[in-house]
Amino acid sequence: MPLPPLRLKKNEDRRLRAGHLWVFSNEVDTRLTPLASFTPGDAVEVTDSRGRVIGSAYVNPNALICARLISRRARQILDRPLLMTRLQRALALRTRSFEKPYYRLVYGEGDALPGLIVDRYGDVLVVQFTTAGMERVKNDIIQALVEALQPKAILLRNDSSMRALEGLERTIEPAYGNVPERVMLEENGARFEAPLLTGQKTGWFYDHRLNRARVQHYARGKRVLDVFSYLGAFGIQAALGGAREVLCVDSSEQALEFVKRNAALNGVTERVATLHSDAFDALKSLHAQGERYDVVILDPPAFIKRKKDMAAGVAAYQRLTQLALQLLTDDGLLLSASCSFHLARAELRDILRKSAVEQDCQLQIIEQGHQGPDHPVHPAIPETDYLKAFLARIQMDT
Q1: Class of the CATH-defined domain 80-180
Q2: Which of 15, 90, 199, 208 has the greatest count of CB atoms below 10 A from its CB?
Q3: Phi, psi values for residue 183, rounded to 5°
Q4: Is pLDDT at 242 greater than 90 in this prediction?
């Protein structure tokens, strides 16, 4: 049975034919196919201005991204067979990439499941639905996950701010089994506890796995400062890599309690200390005390969430970098990361360059980092390629 059409204006099909999955509301011919005639989550066939089918999608007439393609085929809906096929493909990539079941299992558009995030902590899954289309098939997704993975528990962390853009409520609720307050996970030879119900986003940030391995490699015998440490992922892995001393800085007391627990789990308590402070205040205070570190890790939250935040965000990254450089020893290493999509890799590199000039030091970029393979990039959707990191060597001018 044909799906109702969503017709585009003339020439508005080019981006979709080039591989993109999103339809914006201003691209729709609302005279022929009024958006008001649809309800959030409805299945549609997206057509060009001549009525030729581009693919199947789900729609939200109230959102700027008013439709997201789920297939290039006509008459395809988000049903159980399609969901199961996509989940199995996502699982195959993760089992190929990782030895143990701790990873992001589904990364939205990167796994051809726009609007769905699934993180795996062994036999516990944390799920986010960020669109009305995925919310509508919530029960099918949960059943497919149970069938594919036989988890003990599934938690819905539907408290993302993205849901407001889709007109969805923000909630946290168990969907299957007995959801624990905390989960165990393993990464790069380290073990961690993460809070599910009260932690940031889905509890852990798997995307930095490879960048943390880089830090481990360079940490032996070094004094390390981990800023915005959250649960201590970078800092504790640096300690396991042989760092002689690690200081984890975070503004959350709860996060720092988990740093202490995780340090104990890995037998590095004596080498890992914590500092409860705003990051900028901490960097200034440590500099005033004459502290110096061989490795400084900067992994801040997204300072630039929207384009209008660009100027203030760039200034924040610049100031943060300058403060970090003041704390580095000669021949020290700076790991500078950004998860702000709107801050391009070249712009972050330029922030490093300008900061080095301001601090009168030489800077060499020795490695560049990216999100891991459990966050696959959709080649037509730049927004899926968000994480960038630079590992830089600092030498003081003499």
Answers
A1: alpha beta
A2: 208
A3: -130, 160
A4: yes
CATH architecture of 5-71: Roll (2.30)
Say how far apart CA 120 and CA 194 lie, in whole Å: 12
On the question of pLDDT at 199 being above 90, the answer is no
What distance in Å separates the CA atoms of residue 297 and residue 228, rounded to the nearest whole number?
8
- The rounded mean pLDDT for the chain is 95
CA angle 118, 122, 127 (to 5 degrees): 20
List the domain boundaries for the chain: 5-71, 80-180, 191-396
Per-residue pLDDT at 304: 80
Q: What percent of the chain has pLDDT over 90?
A: 91
Tokens of 366: 């020795």
* The residue to which tokens 């408290």 are assigned: 159
Place 162 in a pLDDT band, splitting at 50, 70 and 90.
confident
CA dihedral 305, 300, 322, 391 (to 10 degrees): -110
**Maximum alpha-carbon separation in the chain:** 75
| Strand intervals (E) in the chain | 5-7, 22-24, 43-47, 53-59, 65-71, 102-107, 116-121, 124-129, 153-158, 171-177, 182-187, 190-195, 223-227, 245-250, 272-276, 293-298, 328-338, 361-370, 388-396
DSSP string, 157-169: EE--THHHHTT--
Give helix 345-358 / helix 310-326 axis angle, nearest 10°.
50
pLDDT grade, residue 398 (50/70/90)? low
Answering whether pTM is above 0.70, one says yes
Active-site residues, by number, are 339
Please give the CATH architecture assigned to the domain spanning 191-396.
3-Layer(aba) Sandwich (3.40)
The mean per-residue pLDDT over the stretch 345-365 comes to 95
